[in-house]
Design a protein that fits this description.
By secondary structure, this protein is an alpha/beta fold. Among the domains are: 54-154 and 174-197 and 231-268, Rossmann fold; 340-388. 41% of the residues lie in helices and 24% in strands. It is built from 9 helices and 8 strands. It has helices at residues 8-28, 54-59, 97-107, 119-127, 229-246, 251-258, 272-312, 325-329, 340-385, and strands at 69-77, 82-85, 88-91, 111-112, 140-158, 164-183, 189-212, 215-226. The strands form 2 sheets. A 6-stranded mixed beta sheet has the order 4-1-5-6-7-8. The chain has a two-stranded antiparallel sheet with strand order 2-3. A hairpin with a 5-residue loop joins strand 5 (140-158) and strand 6. Helix 3 packs across helix 5. The longest helix is centred in the C-terminal third of the chain and has 46 residues, at 340-385. The protein is extended and about 160 Å long. The chain starts with 7 loop residues before the first helix and ends in a 15-residue tail after the last helix. The relative contact order is 0.08.
């Protein structure tokens, strides 16, 4: 047994250590006795989950057909990566990707059928308390997998001068997934999307070590920033769901909704909907250019007509100078004035010609009337000669 000399200094040091340990126990939440419950620490409040792609999904509400039903099949974890922690071992990525996709579809406002757990429906149908024919069939269903999880080699820096210096390190994880939208009736894949994301983590701090006499003082201060892996996967699944729905609707439907996706959180450049939207914008620009050209051509034609019209009428600068009044009245080509006797003969000749014209008109009218009478007589003869030529029964004259 070790014998320690007990004096006042030793007793006071032991008492201070016990008191400090008791206070530390109360601050850290450790129970002072096994018979008392541990006080729980209250963290931040519970909130709903919001991703940068939820606004784009909500924008699709009311723009998709309600008579088309969607469901979600198996979206499995195919990475094969496990992690071991102090609490046990498990998968590195979420196992509830299918439920995340179902929530994204519901947020988009589509007609959604729950196929995540069909055991209740199957049991009730087997027990005879539910008619299986009343269950609505789905038109499209979503399947896929999270199929890649790669660790990218990172780097760091640790520099100390006289025992004092900063340190920094960075690591990356790249996650990839594939989702498909399948037609239930024909099992044809109508939409497909492949996405990937790099999940970043970095640590930086400051360390210092000094000797104070024979005592070593070592101080380390640091901070770590790590992106939440499963939350990043939820963002990827929401964006993938928006992409699947965009591939089965016209670009004019999702163009405004796609503009609500922040570029710093997600960019789609080579997907099927991206190409369709690019072609749609190009056609719109071409149509606008053609319309502008048509308007400009019509304006130019109108202006040229106005110009021609203006050139037809002489300008003030091009008008000839006014003639004197005597020159305007004087006409060397004017016919000589008729004498009184010649004027009487001319008038009498005009009257004779007008009377003869009237006689000719009356004669022409009489000839035309005789011709019409002959044609009517001829048509009546043709009608009588062909007794099968009768008026249609469904005409207005014969209908009751």
């Amino acid at each position: 047994m070790l014998n320690f000399p007990l004096n006042r200094k030793t007793i006071s040091a032991l008492g201070s250590t016990v008191l400090f340990g008791y206070l530390l126990t109360g601050c850290t939440g450790l129970a002072s006795s096994n018979k008392k419950p541990v006080s729980l620490v209250q963290g931040p409040p519970i909130t709903d989950i919001f991703t940068p792609f939820d606004m784009a999904l909500s924008c699709l509400k009311g723009q998709l057909r309600n008579d088309v039903s969607f469901s979600v099949g198996a979206i499995l974890d195919q990475t094969g990566k496990d992690v071991v922690t102090n609490g046990g071992s498990g998968k590195m990525v979420t196992q509830g990707a299918g439920d995340m996709v179902q929530s994204a579809l519901f947020q988009a406002g589509v007609s959604l059928l729950n196929r995540r757990d069909p055991r209740i429906i199957e049991s009730e149908a087997k027990w005879g308390i539910r008619d299986a024919k009343q269950i609505k069939a789905s038109d499209y269903y979503v399947t896929g997998s999270i199929n890649s999880l790669d660790f990218i080699p990172g780097g760091g820096l640790d520099m100390q001068i006289a025992g004092v210096g900063p340190n920094y390190s960075q690591t990356r994880i790249m996650v990839g997934l594939d989702l498909s939208l399948t037609d239930t009736r024909s099992s044809k894949v109508v939409a497909n999307v492949s996405l990937q994301k790099q999940i970043a983590a970095q640590d930086y701090g400051l360390s210092a070590g000094r000797f104070a006499g024979r005592t070593l003082l070592n101080i380390q201060i640091g901070k770590g920033e790590r992106e939440a892996t499963n939350f990043a996967l939820r963002q990827m699944l929401n964006l993938a769901t928006f992409e699947l729905l965009s591939q089965v609707v016209p670009p004019a439907v999702f163009e405004s909704c796609r503009a609500q996706i922040p570029a710093e959180f997600g960019r789609l450049n080579l997907t099927r909907s991206s190409v369709a939207l690019y072609k749609y914008k190009q056609s719109q620009q071409q149509n606008s250019i053609d319309s502008d050209q048509t308007v400009s051509e019509s304006n130019s034609t109108h202006s040229s007509n106005e110009k021609n019209k203006s050139t037809d009428s002489p300008n003030k600068d091009t008008k000839p100078p006014k003639h004197k009044e005597s020159e305007v009245i004087e006409n060397p080509e004017q016919e000589p004035e008729m004498s009184k006797q010649e004027l009487i003969k001319y008038i009498s000749r005009k009257q004779d010609s007008s009377s003869s014209d009237k006689k000719n008109d009356q004669k022409d009218n009489k000839d035309n009337k005789d011709k019409d009478d002959k044609e009517q007589e001829k048509s009546s003869m043709l009608w009588d000669a062909n007794p099968e030529v009768v008026e249609n029964y469904w005409s207005s004259t014969q209908r009751d």
